[in-house]
Design a protein that fits this description.
The structure holds 3 protein chains of 3 kinds. By secondary structure, chain A is an all-alpha fold. Chain A is built from 16 helices and no strands. The longest helix of chain A has 30 residues. Chain A is globular. Chain C is mainly alpha-helical. Classes of the chains: A mainly alpha, B alpha/beta, C mainly alpha. Chains in contact: A-B, A-C, B-C. At the A-B interface, helix 9 and helix 10 of A face helix 2 of B.
Chain lengths: ~325, ~500, ~350
């Protein structure tokens, strides 16, 4: 029993890490007032380019390829892809003031297309199979802590057995929290998302803040896609498993009330729901129905959050609206 | 003399689409002086000042500071030139504290909230403001929010302060305090501009008055050497004793009875507090009060658009029978058979469909008419033609989106439609706001015609002179309560002004 | 030289623009999109001209291809028609995928269990009817919460997609499974299949009828008017005595019902069976169709054909030139981006600095 629970938690963290990046990126984006519904596409792109980065690095470096270098390259490649994708979104919504909903949907279609294209292209051009060597695969899924820690009963597995990406995600969450709560720029960003006209009048360069938050947020989200491909999917392009994750991340932002620290446990909780059907069988409930649990929970969360009305737990007031200074 | 001049604007022109908001305006603003920028609604005062605060950029013209030409591309640059503007709609972040709002956008290194709190406290002490720097803005009253705005500008060391209609939402006591502060700042050598259309305030606080009319600069005079009458002449172009025709209707009957009407807003704050009055046929019943005293909620409650906590609203039929309409939807109210028309304050946001043309908007009243699932466009398009002709609406054609029409034409479309239904109760909120004198008179005449037809007209207005000449009786609202009802033929402006502010001492806390 | 300090480009809202130049800009943006679509091809060392050639050839050159292309276009068109009233109302229904799926489920139920008891035509009618009801009810759930609590409809409708797909996956491997272990639902008998007209299932007739009906509904009916008013301003709608919540629910029901019928057409006219991927992204692609055609039903016919050509042609492209078929999604995305951008040039005008100088100089 105990081991089942531990295994569940470990697996939940693995999947939760994917969601956490997606969610954290979108929190940063939405803090600026941009509702980027393109996270799905961004994460596809992150996954495909992350894999491509690591794969072609190994191809170039051959036997000399080192794990840490591959990880860094994968992160950078995914981050860059996410930035590029959300740069398109930013240009359309911030500069050209296109409808945020439709632009986000367009980015979803575009991004999943690009992700698929790159994934497929690699497969075709590399003769049917794209995989990293076992060495590198190992590096992506290994923990950063020494065996001694992992071997501590119970808490060893729960706390120290995860991949580097999980700890990095927590660092990102904490940094984002500190940034939003403790720094001037974080305060300005919040102000931009709350009321662009006020921030504008206060002399804040809202275009800069919106662009930066959306682009960096997109980069962070994209890492989630890469983490999925490189850990859960075993370093092979797998679009089916990635499908829907980006949308869950967008929903998780609401669940987390736009707070980065909430994203840590929120993601792990949803990660647990995503993999529970594999670990904890419930009699009389078929697997396929079990699998839709996280979506049903999301729906319930959406309804519940819309029902209560708390002043402090509202989305950024300008979320979804574009700003034009001379609007009358 | 040259040294005192802080800002000079020369030949400033600004257009919005086809509307010329400012037409080659010259203005100088001096240090150690309070300049009142006077003009009717829509005369271009705010637009002009927005070009100093960096919100808009002029299409043409030059701005000089201390004799040197400057370009203000953004509010930040405006602060750099020592120009700070306090907007009519406060630009504050509701979820932030006062101090956070004050330091928002400042470029002085690390964020130090503690120091900011201290500095805000010291500014407050110096000028006698009463705000807590650590309080969140959404918990503050309107005048506290204004205070935050002023502190914000002072904190940035502004030498030139522009206040846009600062007293519109203040009680007399708060206004007095504000004026005292302005005097202090003037003594500090700051240049102050207040945008206003209230003559008494101009006379009370300003040193000079610059007058705009319909986007054009009329002139600047020393306050000490002018009179309200002379200023009015400058403002409206000709000496107006308003001279609104006010015939008397013979046989007034009860039409709308309101008893103990109480409404709460979403946060549970009382917007209307046991309001009672009766409106009669053949009468224009004016509703006076400083803005935000419950006028909007009152009309929307009668129209079935605002939730009612308790009380009674009854429509009286021609046979004397009374119909309770509290709790009814607008549709159900329409089904009572007693026609009601409503010209809301937010014309494009509530009264009209901006993306549709006149025909589509005429349809808004009659779309349900007729059997079957198809809409009938013939009647509305005829009505649109009629309104177009009778009210002289300027539009390329009757299917041109009304959003793109000028304010006066938008209002003509709305009023024209509402009157066309020959209502028994006609409610109007700020029916002439932003309109030129001619259109305003068109509206006054239309309302009087409706009254003489036998309608009960509710006229919510902000201009007491108009209320006193147009209405038969005036209900004065104050803090959501009825402060009193007066006969408009005998009442004086002072009397009403007093009633408008009588409860505010309690509300201010 | 004072003007140097004014910004290079300023923006102003346009007041008016000729219809012709508006459409010029839109057509121009489609061309730009096709040009940009060359980029991924060039990057993967494919000649864009021959690639576009293959796309056209593979989708239109032979009657067989053309029929397949039309078969692809039918659900896109039908679903775009379903989405149009929602988008007009600014209700962001991205749950068409799930509504199609639920419609398909209802149709499949009758196809599987009633085909031997009900004759051909009534069976098809019942399938279509129940599919419409199922799709409508599925759409009604998020609409109810939107109307009641203003719950975010974008995410809600989207989650409903995954739930619907999960239900089919369960049916596929569970109660409706044909041969044990096959994970497949049996093929429909002939009496549950749509007849073909000119070689394509008669879904195209249904779709074209829907085009006309939707055009009339949106432009000529009271309900269409209500939808347009709500899309412009909810407050105005309330002021005019409209029951906004009710209209939202009604519109979503209609939208879902049409999507449900599309689901019926797909299972009964093309696939002859049900599987979890039955909607196959149609719900999303049709958003593109609806938006690119500016919610005009007749324009949707053209746009859905264009996208079907892209999709069908890309499949040929994949087999012939080994360019991944997802190029279709990329180009679709770019098309949308360009279309969204071009609205900017329709709504705003740019004022360039040097231009102003010239004017001053004159």
């Amino acid at each position: 029993m105990m081991s089942t629970i531990i295994a569940l938690i470990v697996a939940a963290v693995t999947f939760g890490t994917v969601l956490m990046y997606g969610t954290l990126g979108e929190i940063l984006t939405e803090k600026s007032g941009n509702l980027n519904l393109g996270v799905e596409g961004i994460m596809y792109m992150g996954g495909a380019f992350g894999l491509a980065g690591a794969f072609y690095y190994e191809k170039a470096a051959g036997a000399a390829a080192s794990g840490p270098a591959a990880i860094i390259i994968a992160i950078l490649a995914a981050f860059a892809a996410g930035m590029a994708a959300s740069a398109i979104y930013s240009f359309l919504t911030i500069t050209l003031r296109a409808n945020q909903n439709v632009t986000g949907l367009a980015l979803s279609i575009f991004g999943t297309g690009i992700g698929q294209f790159v994934g497929e292209f690699m497969r075709v051009s590399e003769g049917g199979y794209v995989a990293l060597s076992n060495n590198l695969k190992e590096a992506f899924s290994a923990t950063i802590f020494p065996k001694v820690f992992v071997n501590i009963p119970v808490i060893g597995n729960i706390l120290f057995s995860h991949t580097v990406f999980f700890y990095l995600a927590i660092v990102v969450a904490v940094l984002m929290y500190l940034f939003l709560k403790k720094t001037k720029w974080g305060m300005y960003l919040t102000a931009v998302g709350e009321s662009p006209s006020t921030s504008d009048a206060a002399g804040i360069n809202i275009v800069k803040y919106k662009y930066l938050a959306t682009i960096i947020g997109g980069g962070i989200s994209a890492i989630g896609g890469m983490v999925y491909i490189m850990t859960t999917a075993g370093c092979v392009w797998n679009h089916e498993g990635l499908s829907g994750v980006g949308w869950l991340a967008v929903a998780l932002v609401i669940f987390c009330m736009w707070r980065p620290l909430n994203a840590i446990w929120g993601s792990v909780l949803f990660g647990a729901m995503m993999i529970m059907y594999l670990r904890v069988a419930i009699p009389f409930i078929p697997t396929e129905l079990y699998k839709i649990l996280p979506y049903i929970v999301t729906v319930i969360v959406l309804v519940l959050t819309s029902m209560k009305n708390s002043r402090d737990k509202q989305p950024p007031a300008s979320l979804g609206n574009n700003y034009f200074r001379e609007e009358r | 003399m040259e040294n005192r001049c802080a800002i000079e604007m020369k030949g400033i022109t600004k257009c919005f689409g086809q509307v010329v908001a400012n037409d080659s305006i010259d203005l100088s603003i001096n240090r150690g002086e309070i300049l009142a920028l006077l003009g009717e609604n829509g005369s271009g005062k705010t637009t002009l000042m927005n070009m100093l605060s960096g919100i808009y950029q002029p299409d043409d013209g030059r701005i000089l500071k201390d004799g040197e030409e400057i370009y203000i591309h953004s509010p930040r640059e405006a602060y750099g030139f020592g120009i700070g503007m306090i907007h009519q709609h406060y630009k504050l972040i509701e979820v932030f504290t006062a101090a956070q709002n004050v330091i928002l956008g400042l470029n002085d290194g690390r964020m130090d909230l503690k120091a900011a709190n201290e500095k805000v406290r010291s500014i407050c002490q110096r000028y006698g403001f009463e705000i807590n720097p650590e309080e969140k803005v959404y918990d503050m009253s309107v005048s506290q929010k204004q205070t935050v705005e002023i502190v914000k500008v002072l904190y940035r060391g502004a030498e030139i302060l522009i206040l846009d209609e600062p007293t519109a939402v203040l009680t007399p006591q708060e206004t007095k305090k504000l004026f005292a502060v302005l005097e202090n700042m003037k003594k500090d050598g700051k240049a102050i501009v207040i945008i206003t259309h209230k003559l008494n305030e101009v006379m009370e606080v300003s040193d000079k008055v610059a007058v705009l009319r319909k986007g054009k600069y009329i002139g600047t005079v020393n306050t000490a050497e002018t009179s309200p009458q002379a200023l009015t002449d400058m403002m409206v172009g000709r000496a107006v004793t308003l001279n609104i025709d006010r015939p008397k209707y013979d046989n007034p009957k009860k039409k709308l009875v309101i008893e103990n009407l109480t409404c709460l807003d979403e946060e549970g704050v009382k917007k209307l507090d046991s309001v009672s009055f009766t409106a009669y046929t053949g009468e224009i019943l004016g509703v006076a009060g400083i803005s935000g005293s419950g006028q909007k909620e009152l009309l929307e409650a009668i129209a079935g658009l605002y939730p009612i906590k308790e009380g009674s609203i009854r429509l009286v039929g021609n046979d004397g029978s009374e119909k309770e309409i509290v709790g009814l939807t607008p549709k159900k109210i329409r089904q009572t058979g007693i026609g009601m028309a409503f010209v809301p304050e937010d014309r494009l946001g509530m009264g009209l469909v901006g993306s549709m043309g006149m025909t589509g908007n005429m349809l808004l009243r009659s779309w349900k008419k007729g059997k079957g699932i198809l809409v009938r466009k013939k009647e509305p398009s005829e009505l649109a033609e009629k309104v177009l002709e009778e009210l002289e609406v300027v539009t390329p054609d009757i299917n041109f989106p009304v959003r793109r029409l000028s304010g006066g034409n938008v209002q003509k479309v709305l009023v024209g439609r509402e009157i066309a239904s020959e209502p028994e109760v006609l409610m109007t909120a700020y029916a002439v706001r932003g309109l030129d004198i001619n259109t305003s008179y068109t509206i006054y005449n239309l309302l009087t015609e409706e009254k003489m037809r036998g309608a009960a007209v509710l006229y919510v207005g902000e201009d007491l002179d108009v209320l006193l000449e147009l209405a038969d009786r005036i209900v004065v609202l104050c803090g959501g309560q009825v402060a009193g009802t007066v006969d408009a033929r005998t009442a004086t402006k002072e009397e009403i002004g007093l009633m408008m502010t009588q409860f505010n001492t309690k509300e201010g806390e | 030289m004072a003007a140097e300090k004014t910004p290079l480009i300023r923006l102003a809202k346009r007041t008016e623009m000729k219809r012709s130049s508006m459409w010029m800009i839109r057509v121009g943006s489609i061309l730009v999109a096709l040009l940009l679509g060359c980029l991924p091809m060039i990057l993967t060392a494919t000649n864009p001209f021959s690639a576009y050639g293959v796309i056209i050839q593979g989708s239109l050159s032979r009657p067989v291809y053309l029929k397949q292309t039309i078969r692809t276009a039918i659900p896109l068109l039908g679903c775009a028609l379903a989405i149009a009233p929602c988008f007009k109302m600014k209700f962001w229904n991205i749950g068409a995928e799930g509504q199609i799926t639920m419609g398909a489920v209802a149709a499949t139920y009758f196809a599987l269990f009633w085909h031997d008891r009900i004759p051909h035509v009534p069976l098809l009618l019942i399938m279509a009817f129940t599919a419409a009801i199922a799709g409508g009810l599925w759409a009604l759930i998020p609409a109810f919460f939107k109307a009641r609590f203003n719950t975010n409809e974008t995410l809600f409708t989207l989650m409903m997609n995954y739930i619907a797909i999960g239900i089919v996956a369960w049916l596929q491997g569970g109660p409706w499974e044909g041969r044990k272990g096959s994970q497949l639902i049996p093929m429909f008998s002939d009496s549950a299949r749509l007849p073909t007209v000119f070689g394509v299932n008669c879904g195209w007739i249904i779709a074209l009828v829907l085009v006309v009906l939707m055009y009339i509904y949106m432009n000529k009916t009271k309900q269409g008017y209500e939808i347009a008013v709500i899309g412009d301003s909810v407050n105005t709608a309330r002021y005019a005595g409209m029951n906004v919540g009710w209209i939202i629910m009604r519109t979503m029901f209609i939208s879902g019902a049409i999507s449900g019928i599309v689901g019926f057409i797909i299972v009964s006219g093309a696939n002859f069976t049900l599987y979890s991927g039955v909607a196959d992204g149609v719900g999303f692609t049709s958003i593109t169709v609806a938006w690119l055609s500016q919610l005009n039903s007749f324009a949707m016919i053209v746009i859905s054909m264009i996208l079907a050509v892209l999709e069908k042609g890309s499949n040929t492209l994949q087999t012939r030139m080994s360019v991944p078929a997802s190029i279709a999604d990329i180009i679709t995305g770019i098309l949308l981006f360009c279309m969204l951008s071009c609205e900017f040039f329709i709504n705003y005008k740019l004022i360039f600095r040097h231009k102003e100088n010239k004017e001053e100089g004159v």
